[in-house]
Design goal:
Layout: H1 2-8, E1 27-29, H2 31-39, E2 50-55, H3 67-80, E3 88-91, E4 94-97, E5 113-114, E6 119-126, H4 137-154, H5 158-161, E7 162-164, H6 180-191, H7 210-225, H8 236-243, E8 254-258, E9 261-267, E10 272-276, E11 284-285, H9 286-290, H10 300-310, H11 321-329, E12 340-344, E13 347-353, E14 358-362, E15 370-371, H12 381-397, H13 407-414, E16 425-429, E17 432-438, E18 443-447, E19 455-456, H14 458-461, H15 471-477, E20 493-497, E21 506-507, E22 516-522, H16 526-533, E23 544-546, E24 552-554, E25 561-562, E26 567-570, E27 573-576, E28 581-587, H17 595-612, E29 619-621, H18 622-625, H19 640-643
Parallel strand pairs: 2-6, 2-7, 3-6, 16-20, 20-24, 22-28, 22-29, 23-28
Antiparallel strand pairs: 1-4, 3-4, 5-6, 8-9, 9-10, 10-11, 12-13, 13-14, 14-15, 16-17, 17-18, 18-19, 21-25, 23-24, 26-27
Enzyme class: hydrolase
Domain N-acetylmuramoyl-L-alanine amidase: 38-175, 502-638
Organism: Roseiflexus castenholzii (strain DSM 13941 / HLO8)
């Protein structure tokens, strides 16, 4: 549509029609079209007073695919539960319109602004990675036109109008190489139709280097995805939670109606955050609203408290001692499950697992409620036995087994990290592999194979906590013989993550049962292919990728239909193979298949066949189903892969 409009010279008005969720205009403008568009634009009841500049980091300029990338970003935001998005993407092929500029977008946390605050900002995304080099070419020419055009339309000087995403967060965005001195010099020259001043040196790498920021974003994504929709620093709730050390979300962001108004809320480990829609940047804390007391029914505080407890499957009971204690203490967060009982040495205990701690009492001594964390370092044998039984129950609430000899579990107890939100998992970020485990208030990790160098995710964002991440204190906290390395099989599945992004090449299975394993080939190199497929807007992606060195990467959960195949005849009919299959891609370098990759593929096929009860005949190459893919794995030797 955009190219047709360009050819016909059609003037684009501010009355743009949006589609999808979050609402997206999806038009691409040339610089002259943009300048005409912004000059005539009619804002709503509130006029923006800031422009926040970003870089996408990923996709890069080379990965950009025009409308497909825009649609991929829309789907990425939709999967996060966003009701809005950035306003403008400046790409190598033009200036793309996303969120209408008259609406408040989601792109910079507290930098979004709000109706209540009386101001809001326009979010401008430069496509590319600008941590080590400045934007140039079409992206930079378009960016100058966007910033200059908005400065003219709003009658605000660039120095007053412009903000960077990193002004509102700990991110490097719009890239460490981009400085305000350089941007303002270039934009002012553009406005005055003059030559820009000599460029200052690119900005230096800041306090968090790009590779550490990438790791932090990837671990935050995994940590937030344990019980919610994943992490994004542009979302005010998430940024507020990181900056205020509230731990991780216990449920997805949700909405409730109260007093004729709509509120968004999200329970975190240490508090529930909420805001009135659409004042996304006006984040408030439930604990401050409650002030340690239980509000009466019919109030906003009670509605949020009831909703918070409901996320843990435990309705709030104002007459229950555990719930009275939790509200008065203001630090336990939401429950993870209803209260239960256990017996230790013939003594009955009631307990309830909350996000940051497990509380318990003996028998009917309801006025003597205790915290599990208080027993972390006890040397009393009877208390230690109660502690270990309660730890088993706490881990069981997350579907995990407590292992007192595991280093991660020992450190979580010593550091009072709260309830586990998942098991120890491997993850690949860039070219490095890490092990990590998510707890309610922090994630601990190490880099393979430096097992004993255990670090805390919070240390990346809080310099005052760096001592907690040092190897020496860790060693002193552990018991002799602590187990660092997880007990994995010779082959295991690890997540592949691109920080701050998620793949979009998947859909619903629409009720179809998994009946096939479809194999594909890829020339590699593995990490390059994985990153490309993990980008929003990529047209295809398998569930699993087996690299030449034998590593098995997972890109998307099996419950989704990855776009790895397409329509083909199978089982007597033409079908959408994606809906009923698991896609597996095998790296085939120019030197041929490797023994390591074939053994890994055999293990993965056996694992998937057992999991989904797939017969040997259900393991096929895509070339077996599609004549158009006759060469796909055609030279894979023998039929051994069908046996798994």
């Amino acid at each position: 549509m955009a190219s047709l409009l360009r050819q016909r010279g059609v003037r684009l008005t501010s009355q743009d029609v949006t589609t999808g969720t979050p609402p997206m205009i999806g038009r691409c403008l040339t610089i002259p079209q943009w300048l005409d568009y912004v000059a005539r634009y009619q804002f709503g009841q509130l006029t923006p007073s800031k422009v926040v500049l970003h870089h996408t980091w990923r996709p890069t300029v080379q990965q950009w695919r025009g409308l497909a990338s825009m649609q991929g970003m829309q789907r990425y935001y939709a999967n996060k539960g966003w009701a809005s998005a950035p306003h403008i993407y400046v790409a190598p092929d033009g200036i793309w319109l996303f969120t209408p500029m008259k609406d408040i977008g989601i792109h910079a946390g507290p930098g979004n602004g709000s109706l209540k605050a009386g101001w809001y900002s326009i979010g401008v995304e430069m496509v590319g990675d600008y941590d080590r080099e400045r934007p140039s070419g079409a992206v930079w020419e378009g960016t100058k036109a966007v910033l200059g055009g908005l400065s003219r339309r709003l009658n605000i000087p660039p120095a007053t109008l412009l903000a960077f995403h990193r002004d509102y967060s700990k991110k490097s965005c719009p890239g460490w190489a981009v400085t305000k001195e350089w941007v303002l010099g270039e934009v002012n020259a553009w406005l005055n139709n003059a030559a820009p001043p000599p460029p200052p040196p690119p900005g230096p790498i800041g306090s968090i280097p790009p590779e550490i920021e990438e790791l932090a974003e990837a671990l935050l994504e995994q940590s937030y995805a344990r019980r919610a929709e994943g992490y994004n620093s542009s979302w005010a709730f998430h940024q507020f939670a990181v900056e205020n050390n509230l731990g991780f979300p216990m449920a997805k962001s949700q909405r409730l109606q109260h007093g004729g108004k709509t509120y968004a809320y999200q329970p975190f480990a240490r508090d529930t955050l909420f805001c009135e829609s659409p004042n996304w940047g006006d984040v408030q804390r439930l604990s401050q609203l409650l002030a340690g007391s239980i509000p009466p029914p019919g109030t906003l505080g009670r509605a949020l408290l009831d909703a918070t407890y409901a996320t843990g499957g435990s309705p709030f009971r104002p007459d229950w001692a555990f719930h009275q204690y939790a509200v008065a203490g203001q630090t336990l967060g939401p429950p993870l499950e209803p209260s239960k009982k256990l017996v230790v040495d013939g003594v009955s205990y009631s307990y309830q697992v909350f996000a940051t701690d497990t509380i318990f009492n003996r028998g009917t001594e309801w006025q003597n409620i205790q915290r599990l964390s208080a027993l972390a370092n006890t040397t009393n044998p009877a208390q230690a036995k109660v502690r270990d039984e309660l730890l088993k129950a706490t881990y069981a609430a997350a579907g995990q087994q407590y292992r007192p000899d595991w280093a991660f579990h020992q450190l979580a107890r010593q550091w009072n990290l709260g309830a586990p939100l998942g098991k120890t998992d491997p993850i690949t970020v860039g070219d490095k592999q890490y092990n990590f485990q998510v707890y309610a208030t922090d994630t601990i990790y190490n880099i393979v194979p430096n097992w004993s160098d255990v670090k805390r995710l919070s240390a990346i964002f809080g310099p005052q906590q760096m001592l907690l991440a040092a190897p020496a204190p860790v060693a002193r906290l552990l018991s002799p013989g602590a187990v660092f390395a997880p007990e994995w099989d010779a082959f295991h599945i690890q997540r592949f993550a691109v920080a701050g992004r998620a793949p979009s090449a998947y859909g619903s299975r629409s009720g179809s049962k998994i009946r096939l394993i479809v194999l594909h080939g890829d020339a590699g190199p593995a990490l390059q292919s994985l990153e490309t497929m993990a980008m929003p807007g990529s047209p295809r992606m398998p569930h699993y990728y087996v690299a030449a060195h034998g590593a098995i990467y997972q890109l998307i959960d099996d419950e989704f239909a990855a776009f790895h195949s397409g329509m083909a005849y199978w089982d007597g009919a033409r079908r959408n193979i994606n809906r009923s299959s698991i896609g597996v891609m095998l790296e085939r370098p120019h030197t041929g298949y490797t023994d390591a990759s074939q053994r890994a593929l055999s293990w993965l096929i056996a694992h998937l066949r057992a999991k989904y009860n797939i017969p040997a005949s259900g393991v096929v190459r895509w070339s077996d189903l599609s004549p158009d893919a006759a060469g796909d794995l055609a030279d894979l030797p023998g039929n051994w892969y069908r046996e798994g």
